[in-house]
Amino acid sequence: MGGASIWHWIVVGLIVVLLFGRGKISDMMGDVAKGIKAFKKGMADDDTAKPVQPSEPVRTIDHQAGATGAQTNAATTDHKVG
Fold it and tell me: Pfam families from the entry (predicted)?
């Protein structure tokens, strides 16, 4: 009762062919194959993507040697209202 014999699968296959027809099943398999092919092509395109080149050269910020932490703290504490 729980086992599926070869005759069970043959009957199920015949019912599927009768319901969907041979043409619809082959069309469906063709669509699946096209989808797999497009997926593989998309994955291959991602692997060969070129790295992005920056349009401008990288700039650095120079440190001002004259400004110290004590000078900047004194300048900001003058504006406190207390």
Answer: TatA_B_E
